[in-house]
Design goal:
Blueprint: H1 2-7, H2 19-22, E1 38-43, E2 49-55, E3 58-66, E4 72-78, E5 81-89, E6 95-101, E7 104-105
Antiparallel strand pairs: 1-2, 2-3, 3-4, 4-5, 5-6, 6-7
Length: 107
Amino acid sequence: MVPIVMSLGGVMLSGLVVAQEITLPLCPISQITSWNDCIGVMTLPDGEKYIGGFRHGSRHGRGSNTFASGEQYEGDYVDGRANGLGKYTWPDGKVYVGEFLNGQPNG
């Protein structure tokens, strides 16, 4: 795991990133829209930051997202949205762990 951490500029990957995702290559230095089947870091102008898998330029696979509001999501993504198992944490300490469907808690 050390080479990945160093390659991502010292950013630790979430504990939820599974071994099969770690075997994906790092995304190239290019436009995010061209990222496919790789691991990368995306920081938006508002401060939102995503670290994890990408497919066809979208969040896909396992990843960790920290929103500008301080909320955090760690878990599965499909086509850019939280889908599958995940953990959502609010700044006040509330936590939801479970299924997500189309970006929303589902359970």
